[in-house]
């Protein structure tokens, strides 16, 4: 049973390595076209291996950051902590994180409005407008 799990992990790791190798090959091809340089198959393989190993290190670091914070889930704050040595990467991750948070808030607000409308309830903004209308009509 344990051997089957280890074998499955090894197969998945090989598939992931192949995907990294393919992506690195595509990126190198783009650089070749843009910069008029050539990459040997050995250099592409070396870049792929280094990239895969660095990703493994990143994954372990992220897991440790979450574990240190007594969490089981890696958060964007963990990713920002990992990227802290590269100002441009940290800035990019922070920007994307803020965009996602903003988008999530908008989606939650839309859901809230939809569910209130379905129940016939008023949203806080609509309640405030109704109170203002009542106050105006009482003064007249």
TrEMBL record:
Q: Which Gene3D superfamilies would you find in this protein's record?
A: Histone, subunit A
Query: What is the superkingdom listed in this entry's lineage?
Result: Eukaryota
Give positions of region: Disordered.
Answer: 98-140
User: Record's Gene Ontology CC terms?
Assistant: FANCM-MHF complex; kinetochore
Q: Where in the cell is it found?
A: Chromosome, Centromere, Kinetochore; Nucleus
Q: Biological process (GO) annotations? A: cell division; DNA repair; replication fork processing; resolution of meiotic recombination intermediates
SUPFAM superfamilies per record: Histone-fold
An annotated Gene Ontology molecular function: DNA binding
Keyword Glycosyltransferase among UniProt keywords: no
> What UniProt keywords are attached to this protein's entry?
Cell cycle, Cell division, Centromere, Chromosome, DNA damage, DNA repair, DNA-binding, Kinetochore, Mitosis, Nucleus
UniProt entry tagged with the keyword DNA damage: yes
What family is it from?
Answer: Belongs to the TAF9 family. CENP-S/MHF1 subfamily.
Q: What is this protein called?
A: Centromere protein S
Species source reads: Lonchura striata (white-rumped munia)
Q: What gene makes this protein?
A: APITD1
